[in-house]
Hints:
Elements: E1 3-12, E2 17-19, H1 20-24, H2 31-38, E3 42-44, H3 54-68, E4 78-82, H4 93-100, E5 108-111, H5 117-130, E6 136-143, H6 156-159, E7 165-174, E8 180-188, E9 196-197, H7 207-213, E10 224-225, H8 227-248, E11 258-261, H9 266-276, H10 287-290, H11 297-307, E12 316-323, E13 327-334
Parallel strand pairs: 4-5, 4-6, 11-12
Antiparallel strand pairs: 1-7, 2-3, 6-7, 8-13, 9-10, 12-13
Amino acid sequence: MYNSKITGLGKYVPENVVTNDDLSQLMDTNDEWIQERTGIKERRHIKKGDGNSTAKMGAKAAEIAIKRAGLTNNDIDMIVFATLSPDYYFPGCGVQVQHLMGMDTIPALDVRNQCSGFIYALATADQFIKSGMYKNVLIIGSENHSGGLDFTTRGRSVSVIFGDGAGAAVLSREEDTSKGVLSSHLHSQGEHALELSLKGPSTEQWVPELIENNPQENIPYYPYMNGQFVFKNAVVRFSEVIMEGLEKNNLNVTDIDMLIPHQANLRISQFVQKKFKLTEDQVFNNIQKYGNTTAASIPIALTEAWENGKIKEGDTVVLAAFGSGFTWASSIIKW
């Protein structure tokens, strides 16, 4: 029997900082309105010509994670890449990273579970390692949101929230089964799929049909979010899936050393923190700087928390996410 353990972490965000005041020049909004509703002060956006893409940012984060794991690219047995914003409709970003990093012909798997994507990817990699099939799996969450957002007043409720960036982790075989990923818990509820979605273009409506059947100002190229409905479901599911993980491992809320929630909205994180009576030192948030980076948010936050010395050996670390699908998930890790 094996466990899997995070042996290396890395993150990459574009240099281009976009503040709330910058967005107020493009749409009817302001810094106070955005911070009050989301907690976000700024985010990073890819800038044309800066050499970034979803796959390229993922590779940059991965390079750091592999180095910190004390490994080389040739030591990686598999890639699991989570994103909702791949460079192409197909193929996926995983094979691009395999090529960009000059790796051998290892398998590359893409995960399309949006905000829960990184935990789904972690759970998948964990099972490959526990089965004995692979020893070192590279997990990446990366997003390029800025290229597909509506930066007008019409789209402000969504476009002020999201940012670009990537995070990566190396998951490696661990013979001490008291350490590493103790368990992961995955859920979905497809009846609410369209409450947070991007419907087109798709195989249901390719571009010509979209243009023919919709007024020019209403073509569904942009994401839709039923904000209040998503918020209400998120706070319930976050709490449920965290408790599910703790109970599975005979742990209590008081055993949590660090909670890394998906950075969807600072108000959601604060609600969960208050419900579980956790201190500021037990919850890590960086949405203020980066916005919601979807599949990248947990690995970016996990990397920063570790870099800042907030996670140490022996700590119980809880990852939790909720998002489009609806999907939600948690992982309990003994660092």
